[in-house]
């Protein structure tokens, strides 16, 4: 019965997420609450301070739910803190003009060359996506590069594909919403997932950056490009910096860049936990870039609202995680699925999941894959001698790069609108490159040990 209710719960959540008429927090809170009440009234749950399952009244069901919630929230606190402070940290650096400063310097060295325009697109995407926000990345990259693509007679599909894939691979950073969600649902620290996927991420970014020197000449042969006069006029307009929100000196900008590098190195070396790193990092960034307490408070209020929605989702995941684990539903569902998987395939389970994570994410949405299916796959991996980390990494590697192909998320439609591309063309031209990259990254992950072959 626990398994049956668990699968019904998952199916109901998937259906409501795909339907898109209900926000995530109500789905993640109300449905698990209903499941606990049903199982409690029927006598399939263990009451508080008892050792065996027994029928409970409604009040006792709610008390039991409270215990599950405490467990779940404890597992998500670090993730919520990480995401909150990281989002504000990167936005403060953005308001200080650090990212615009870097882009303007790089633009000086970009010539009238199709490959270099593609390279600039990759670089701008990598810089703008450091805060982990897909919407911010598209709002910065698409309006900046689309006029250049049009002048160069390069299809907007190419812009859409490169921005989606580079930002997708970069989504594996520990402070992004992708890792925040899968970390909250599996209980594996975001930094551990990132460390396991780091070779995959590095290879993916190198591949995408290197590919511009292959794709560029191909596009050139198809008639893409512009005259030197046209390019010079367009480039002069792009070199003009927007006035930053925070008025800081160049010395402060150089400090911000150096500080960011030091912070990333500390995370990479494991010298400090991610949530602590960004709590300290934000505090220093506010002191260095803001002139007084009023400006610091203004920055926190301005960008804290961007993190609030995700923090609510993370805490709501805590409800789901606590109910699924403490009620026994997770173990029951894992046992059921294991009975359906041939024993010979069990040791290869996480690699198979990684190979299929791109179409799986497209079908059910990254939210469902990260928050609902990842812990189930992780428990199955454990049962076959693997780890929860391997299950989490397998779900993450393809879902990250497929984010712009997801039919049930808002950001892809924002990207399509900014690039002037329809979803049918997005799926037609971007699916094979995206899944191809996903399969390649899964193979790299297998060799690097993120998840075994």
UniProtKB/TrEMBL annotation:
Lineage: superkingdom: Bacteria
Keywords: Membrane, Transmembrane, Transmembrane helix, Transport
TM annotation in the entry: 5-22, 28-46, 67-94, 114-142, 154-173, 193-216, 257-287, 307-324, 336-362, 382-408, 429-451
Subcellular location as annotated: Membrane
Gene Ontology CC entries for this record: membrane
Major localisation: membrane
Domain spans labelled Citrate transporter-like: 15-386
GO biological process, one term: transmembrane transport
InterPro entries in the cross-refs: Cit_transptr-like_dom, NhaC_Na-H+_Antiporter
Record's bilayer topology term: Multi-pass membrane protein
Name used for this protein in its record: SLC13 family permease
Organism name: Intestinimonas massiliensis (ex Afouda et al. 2020)
